[in-house]
């Protein structure tokens, strides 16, 4: 019972196989909208990028994970992805009972080892299992007949999930895993299905929550992982921090945040170089109908600094559909901005305007909303960035609660020109329509501050669900 309750907590806090379908996903994020996907792991073999993902099957409004199998997606351009089908499922592990959580695939000697988080269906709860196949697409079968790591493994994590396996240049393989702030590591034997020596608790992986991803670049070891400290994410959400080390078992030095919180409560990184470009692969709740248990894998480019640190990834928005009730395409700089306002009602959430949520209508404040009831007249919301952003468009999704907050009478976009706020040049109409992204275009500006002046209708206050800066 304690374990089931723990499962629900984890869900809140963290957070017969089907044939391939070869319908390409859109050449943009998310990699597919045909199903909900989560917990990506990336592997490059030859000229193909393989993404191994979990599969969210929770119903709309569901409050826990429903995950039964894992899919494989392939791409040769990191843009269009093909679903190769569910290549592994809970039923592939006869000793397991459910919960096909995060996984990762590691090649060795012509074989592909697929490490999974899975419910052992016995004493204890989540385990690490391992399947093996002869190609990146399998077929995969249980490699061990039981868990590789379980609660009975000495010094195991408080929650044995989220394996990441890394093979060093000398052939030694390492497995990192864990959740509930309990990162663990061990060497793997050359057979890849047995631990080689004790489980260690690597030092220096500060603020670790779960979802480790290990790799090496230019002789330095990198460990990215989900963290949920107040320095990087709102309560209940997670960012991705990373640490570096000169030894595969540490000690590690934490280097900061590489991915801000996303629109789902959980966050889960995979970092990979493909065709000379580095990518951050992760999930969010951005697909239509998405949510914390209906996530979607997406990817964005990742760039390096000369000193080997990673630049924070800019989360791009999804150009699915475009227009109408869908957000316009382009890089939404709101995601990296600090928001402020002339006034927000104490019970409302200013940060909601920049969480990338796609509202189902102007009354949909399920992800929070900015509102200034009971003020009337002109109020403003504003974005600030530490360095200038090139901007030429905003998209505003108004909040209308059919009570004291109504659509505004008018609005105007302004920017800080170094000494004062002035209207953005060449501004098109500032739309005040309901149930849509009102797009206002202007001549490109470079600024650290962008402001939206909102003037209410007589007798009403105003509100905003999303304000995109592109
Ligand atoms: O998908 C289930 C769990 O949520 C994963 O194992 C965690 O990493 C989090 O993404």
Automatic annotation (TrEMBL):
> Which range is the signal sequence, renumbered to this chain?
1-27
Give the residues annotated as coiled coil.
none
> In the record, what terms sit under GO molecular function?
hydrolase activity
Keywords recorded for this protein, A-Z: Carbohydrate metabolism, Glycosidase, Hydrolase, Polysaccharide degradation, Signal, Xylan degradation
Known Pfam families for this protein?
Glyco_hydro_43 (PF04616)
**Record-linked PANTHER family:** ENDO-1,4-BETA-XYLANASE, PUTATIVE (AFU_ORTHOLOGUE AFUA_2G04480)-RELATED
The record's comment on protein family reads: Belongs to the glycosyl hydrolase 43 family.
Name used for this protein in its record: Glycoside hydrolase family 43 protein
Please report the organism this UniProt entry assigns to the protein: Streptosporangium vulgare
